[in-house]
Structure formats: C-alpha cells, structure tokens
Design brief:
This protein is of the alpha/beta class. It is about 40% helix and about 15% strand. It has a single domain (about 5-190), classed as Flavodoxin domain (Rossmann fold). Strand 4, helix 5 (about 130-140) and strand 5 form a beta-alpha-beta unit. Bound molecules: flavin mononucleotide.
Length: about 190
C-alpha cells in the first residue's frame, strides 16, 4: 500500500493550511493510500544549530519526523506564505530531517519520494509565491514534485466553523493533488 505523510508548514491551532492538507489527504485516502497527518509543532524541534547537534546529537522529535518521512512513499505539504517564502517552522523541520545518523543514507528522507504541494492564504493569491520556493527546495533535496499544485486564495472563507471545506471547486482541486500523488506513486512502483 502507498504510504503518505501529510503536514502543514504552520503550527497554528486554527491553521488554514492544516485544513487544506487534510482535504488533500482525504483525496489520497480515497485513492487507496494510507495517510499519516502530523503537526510539525508536536515534534518540538529546537532551531537547528550545528553546535547543538554536535553537543546533543539528533533531536529525538526531529528523528521521529525524519523516520516518518523515510517510511513514506509520498509527501503532501500545504505551506503558509510568510513574506513570499515558507515558514521558519517548516524550514527548520526540513533542515533537521536532512541530517543523517549512522546507518542512514544521505537525504534518505527525501530522495526517491514524490510530493504534492499546496499553499493557502487569506489573500487573493493564496500564497502562490511560496510554491516556487517550496518546489525548488524539495526538488533540490531529491524529492520529485508533482507538476500540478494548488494555491487557495481567500482561504478563510472556504471552510466552516468546524474546519470543513465549503467550496466544492477547491475541494475537488485539493483532492486531485492527493489522488494524483497516489496514482503517480502506483505507476512508479509498478
Ligand atoms: C510573518 C508573516 C508573513 C506573512 N506574509 C504573507 C505573504 O507574503 N503572503 C500572504 O499571502 N500572506 C502572508 N501572511 C499571512 C498568512 O497568509 C496568514 O497568517 C495565514 O493564515 C497563515 O497560514 P495558517 O493559517 O496556516 O497559519 C503572513 C503572515 C505572517 C505571520
């Protein structure tokens, strides 16, 4: 079975990117994948610092996050756009998971994986600019990024008070990111 790790680049309790990635995750599940959704905040990763790493070794939470990536075939990411790029929370997690411990291959969390990427913002552009930097980052780490992507503009108006999506066109587009990821991985595995 295809295994997918899904997460948002925001740890905010009411994060719209968490809601967006959950819709894409549903699309991946409906296409037959096993999806694990995680909250990056829950790993309590300190700000990456080589001196800290030399002193304490790999952070336990960071290793847990990295292991989840290693155990996955594909990744679903919805990122907030902070000043036209990704959040520090997201980049910090990506940097930690790029570090290897004994027995791991270089960039094992990223190489040979496929990712579906999304962004969400209350603004009209939906965080479209972060998708450029996010794609470049993931590709540079060895993850193939699906050509199809989605920036959700006016994102605060697209979910109800319970976090359920209310806009059918957006729901369809997000689920398609999830299902395309599964279909691509199935083809690669065949
Ligand atoms: C430091 C900072 C910078 C931001 N920069 C942008 C930006 O460049 N473009 C944008 O559309 N929204 C920007 N925003 C607004 C975010 O899109 C908004 O806070 C969004 O809700 C964050 O995603 P989340 O709901 O998943 O936490 C910024 C917010 C913060 C805190």
């Amino acid at each position: 079975m295809i295994k997918i790790l899904a997460f948002a680049g925001s740890g905010r309790k009411d994060s719209v990117n968490k809601k967006v990635v959950a819709v894409a995750a549903k699309g991946a599940e409906e296409a037959g994948a096993q999806v694990t959704i995680v909250d990056l905040e829950s790993f309590n990763m300190p700000m990456f610092d080589e001196d800290l790493e030399a002193k304490n070794g790999m952070h336990e939470g960071a290793q847990q996050f990295k292991q989840l990536l290693i155990d996955s075939d594909g990744i679903l990411i919805s990122s907030p756009e902070y000043n036209s790029s990704y959040s520090a929370l997201f980049k910090n997690a990506i940097d930690w998971a790029s570090r290897k411990i004994e027995g791991e291959k270089p960039l094992e969390a990223y190489k040979g994986k496929v990712a579906g990427i999304m962004a969400a913002s209350p603004g009209a552009m939906g965080g479209m600019r972060v998708l450029v930097t996010l794609r470049m980052l993931m590709e540079n780490l060895g993850t193939m990024v699906l050509p199809n992507q989605k920036a959700v503009g006016g994102a605060f108006t697209k979910f109800d008070g319970n976090g359920n999506i209310t806009d059918p066109a957006t729901e369809k587009a997000l689920k398609k990111i999830g299902s395309e990821l599964v279909e691509t991985l199935q083809k690669l595995k065949a």
